[in-house]
Amino acid sequence: MKNIFLVIVFCAIYQATIAQNYVPTLKNNTQLHYVCKLHGQTRTLQLTVEMSKNALAFKLETRGVNSKIVMLPEAVKNGNALSFNQGEYAPVLNLESNETFFMISQSAYQDLIKNNSFVYNNTTYVLDKSEDKNGISVDGKTVDALHVKAQIDETEMWIIKNPEFPLICKIIKNPLGINPTLVKVVD
Q1: Are 162 and 24 in contact (CB under 8 A)?
Q2: Three-class SS of residue 111?
């Protein structure tokens, strides 16, 4: 009886450990499915990854809007501004050399890990170390993410623990009224 109990406990701990370690990765043609709350409306959004040596791009599809948002390598590495463009202005939008889209830069992620904070769009975001009882899940798996709070307003973000591609998997209380949540990743 003790052995059965120990096996059940071991399986439960193992399953919990696997679930907490889910870190979605990006590669060519990875599809990221978000549900966005936009100014009181709900909209689905699909981003398809296109990688090259010269850029990282997301092909954006939502409610009849098809666009391609292109981030330069220097933005992916050292960007300090988040673009909230919704793909409506051009079939291909080349972001500025400091702008990222649906992710923070690698250097901002390193600042977050090293200093428990980072600055983006002239706003300081601080790591929330309190235990988050409403963890982020994607496809039923708990995502390993860092929860940050803006120091200038009430914005909160959850950033996937991936130093190469620190995707934003959720934003709430955004003063711009754009609050996306990652719900599915398809490789």
Answers
A1: yes
A2: helix
User: Angle 40-166-101 (CA atoms, 0-180°, nearest 5)?
Assistant: 50
Amino acid, res. 144: D
What's residue 131's pLDDT?
67
Nearest to 24, CA basis, from 171, 165, 158 = 165
Half-sphere exposure of 94 (CA within 13 A, CB side): 6
- The structure's pTM equals 0.84
Residues whose CB falls within 8 Å of the CB of residue 22, separated by 6 or more in sequence, listed in order: 138, 141, 142, 143, 144
The torsion angle over the Cα atoms of residues 84, 85, 86 and 92, rounded to 10 degrees, is -140
Q: Residue 101: in which H helix or E strand, if any?
A: none
Output the pLDDT for position 19.
45
Tell me what pLDDT residue 134 has.
60
Alpha carbons 14 and 178: distance in angstroms, whole number: 36
Residue with tokens 């990006």: 26
H or E element that contains 16: helix 2-20
Position of tokens 């948002």? 69
* Strand pairing class (156-160; 168-172): antiparallel
Nearest CA among 141, 140, 142 for reference residue 132: 142
- pLDDT < 70 positions in the chain: 1-21, 88-89, 131-134
